[in-house]
Amino acid sequence: MKAVTRVAGNISLAVAGVAAGALFQTAPAAAATPAMPALVAYVRSGDVWVSKGATESKLTTGGGWSRPRFSPDGASIALLKGGQLWTMKADGTAKRRLTTRAASGPSWAPDSSSIAFASLSCSGGPGVYRISATTVNAAPEVVFPAYCRDEELPAEPVTARTAQPAGSLSDRLRADDAVAWSPDGTKVAFRGGDCESTYDACLTIGTVATGTEKTVAAYGGGSLQTTGFAVIPHWRTDGAKLAWTAYQKGETLADNQPLHVVEYDTLTGTKRTIGANQDRELAYVDTTRGVATGTYRNGSWIMLVNLATGVRTPFHQGSQPSVQPQR
């Protein structure tokens, strides 16, 4: 592990955007690299790094790695390599591929024993699977859509997806199938679902035990005259909030919403925007702070975001943050 020290200077579907307020437009605070209470994992130039302050450690080499996610016990990281699911210890050792099935954005079960990920379902669209994180040669099991649970697994593609889609940042993110397992283990948030029979794009919270689905964001189709997406969900550790990355193009310029982070209250269903334009991929640090990928110095940086004020402080260059749970 190589260490490097660097210092950095019932939902409402009529409108699928944010229910409260305009985007914060706060400029990044000019300060030294902030100290974090736990490690933050992130991706830079195709490799995974971790840091909790000025010093960074590189956990992978060779490029092609993406979407690191710490396990709830903090001991392991799930991540993607060439579009397939791998795990490693939190120090970067013991790397192991779990399945050859093409996978997107993993998320751990609360007991760190298994991992949910997205892959092709029996419906032909994105589905959610789970696989043991400890059993060698474990077979994935279907979680969503529920009607696929008794079907044979779809044939694996000849090769896994290795390259990101071309186009703008929003074009690349709109098809990101990252999933998020709730802290209590009862629900999974994921892109798509049964709502795609009505809407052009949507985000779903599915209940694992029953297979029922609830749409929490939707764009196009039905009575909606918008286009856009809601992707890369992330739960707060108490399960009271769910954040995701969103984009909307409306009928008029006033209806347009560039890339931004939406926070959803799972009890009341209210939504608000946090951070700034182009912020994305929020991961909660605690109830008052999060880390998100933002634009800074003409590149992608991990930004520490005050969730109440929107003040953003640069942390390190990179994207796709994940915060190690504190034990």
Descriptive overview:
This protein is mostly beta strands and 327 residues long. It has one domain: 6 Propeller (Neuraminidase). 2% of the residues lie in helices and 47% in strands. The chain has one helix spanning 169-173; strands spanning 2-5, 40-44, 47-51, 55-58, 65-70, 76-81, 84-89, 96-102, 104-108, 114-120, 126-132, 141-144, 180-181, 187-191, 199-207, 213-221, 227-235, 241-249, 257-265, 271-274, 280-284, 289-296, 299-306, 312-317, 319-323. A five-stranded antiparallel sheet has the order 1-4-3-2-25, with no helix packed on it. Strands 5-6-7-8 form a four-stranded antiparallel sheet, with no helix packed on it. A four-stranded antiparallel sheet has the order 9-10-11-12, with no helix packed on it. β5 and β6 form a beta hairpin. The longest helix is centred in the middle third of the chain and has 5 residues, at 169-173. Mean pLDDT is 89; it is low at 4-25 and 159-163.
Q: TL;DR of this structure?
A:
InterPro entries: 6-blade_b-propeller_TolB-like, WD40. With 327 residues, the protein is mainly β. It contains one helix and 25 strands.
What is the end-to-end distance?
A: 22 Å
CATH top-level class: Mainly Beta
Mean pLDDT: 89
Could you state the order of secondary-structure elements as H and E? EEEEEEEEEEEEHEEEEEEEEEEEEE
CATH architecture, by name, is 6 Propeller
**Number of domains in the coordinates?**
1
3D shape: globular
- Give the strand tally: 25
Structural class: mainly beta
Strand content of the residues, in percent? over 45%
- The CATH homologous superfamily is named TolB, C-terminal domain
The main pleated sheet reads as: 5 strands, antiparallel
Low-confidence stretches: 4-25, 159-163
- CATH domain fold name: Neuraminidase
Signal peptide: 1-31
Keywords: Signal
Pfam families: PD40 (PF07676)
Protein name: WD40 repeat protein
